[in-house]
Write a structure and sequence with these properties.
The chain is an alpha/beta fold. The strands form four sheets. A seven-stranded mixed beta sheet has the order 9-8-7-10-11-15-12, sandwiched between helices. Strands 2-1-6-5 form a four-stranded antiparallel beta sheet, with no helix packed on it. The protein has a two-stranded antiparallel ribbon with strand order 3-4. The longest helix has 20 residues. It is globular, with a radius of gyration of 23 Å.
Length: 337
């Protein structure tokens, strides 16, 4: 069996390494080093051999005199630049999920709504080689895109990863009861999956849900509260704003990564237990008798303001990724599994 290394390489640049180049204006270019490769851009050009054997953090000068900083891309760089058909969970939200859902090395995790594999990469790096991640996706074309993106990042199939096609409500019941530590859901109607999630989660296990709109968040929390099998329900969003710092010109950047989605987490009660009564009752006007969303049945992407992935675009991305995988295998950069 081939040895698997979850850590990214830290030595000198070598053939097959993915390198991120930054030009003087901050524009990023990602290349894979080849023995006879050549980088060419509007800002300058140079042969790959000028980087092979050099340490990370090298500044290479093109024939035109332009300086390029060479670093290995971080996972967040890769996720933001990788081909995708479905909208990804942004790194800022993925980081919150890893921390707030307490994804630890060796954890057994279920993930549904794989999309393009962005969250999958973070989960695999968190659970490590000794963990277990079962990713469930309903669409075959998304499954192919996610598999290619994940395999190209690790250079082979991660030994802790299992990827299935199907509905979470069905696949989750194939796991042993109370055998899963954490569950992450990225889907339109996660409230439909609470019974299956509670079956699979061990007592005290964490379910973390990612949704895009306020209506989805509200419906999810109502379902948690009505289900009587969940406690410690918590909802939040994360906003990230960079700052411009240059001499005395210190100010927030004009643009920022604002709203991307809401996160809702809850913990599973032990079988047969009932949630403790809350000390404070909501005001009569705030009480939701019967559930304000119970009569809504058409939870579709266009109804909640989400753009559905274009099937033609996904097919093109799948073909491009397959070409990349074939090229990587041919040059020994992707191991068979």
């Amino acid at each position: 069996m081939q040895q698997f290394h979850t850590k990214r390489p830290t030595g000198l640049f070598s053939v097959g390494d993915r390198v991120q180049l930054t030009d003087p204006k901050g524009r990023l270019h990602t290349i894979t080093l080849e023995e006879k490769g050549f980088f060419n851009s509007s800002r300058g050009a140079f042969a790959h051999r000028e980087l092979i054997g050099k340490p990370e953090g090298t500044v290479v000068v093109s024939r035109e005199g332009t300086e390029f900083l060479a670093l290995r891309p971080l996972l967040c760089d890769y996720v933001m630049s990788m081909p995708r058909g479905a909208t990804i969970i942004y790194p800022k939200d993925a980081a919150q999920i890893i921390q707030m859902a307490d994804i630890f090395p060796g954890a057994r995790v279920l993930e549904a709504g794989v999309g393009s594999g962005g969250m999958t990469l973070s989960l695999l790096q968190a659970v490590g080689e000794s963990g277990y991640l079962h990713s469930i996706e309903r669409r075959e074309d998304f499954r192919e895109v996610a598999a290619a993106n994940v395999d190209l990042w690790f250079g082979q199939r991660h030994p802790a990863w299992k990827l299935s096609i199907g509905d979470f409500q069905e696949v989750a019941y194939l796991e042993d009861e109370r055998s899963i530590d954490r569950i992450v859901l990225d889907m339109l109607a996660p409230w439909e999956c609470l019974d299956a999630a509670h079956y699979a989660l061990r007592p005290g296990g964490v379910l973390c849900v990612y949704v895009a709109t306020v209506t989805q968040m509200s419906r999810t929390i109502e379902a948690f509260n009505a289900h009587n099998k969940w406690v410690a329900v918590h909802s939040w969003e994360t906003l990230v704003r960079d700052w411009h710092v240059e001499g005395l010109a210190v100010r927030p950047m004009h643009s920022m990564v604002g709203h991307t989605g809401f996160l809702v987490s809850a913990r599973a009660l032990a079988k047969g237990e009932v949630p403790p009564r809350k000390g404070l009752r909501p005001a009569p006007a705030a009480q939701n008798k019967g559930g304000q969303w119970d009569e809504v049945t058409d939870w579709e992407e266009n109804k909640v303001g989400l753009r559905s992935a274009n099937a033609r675009k996904v097919r093109k991305i799948t073909r491009d990724l397959q070409t990349k995988k074939d090229h990587a295998r041919k040059n020994g950069h992707l191991k068979e599994y």
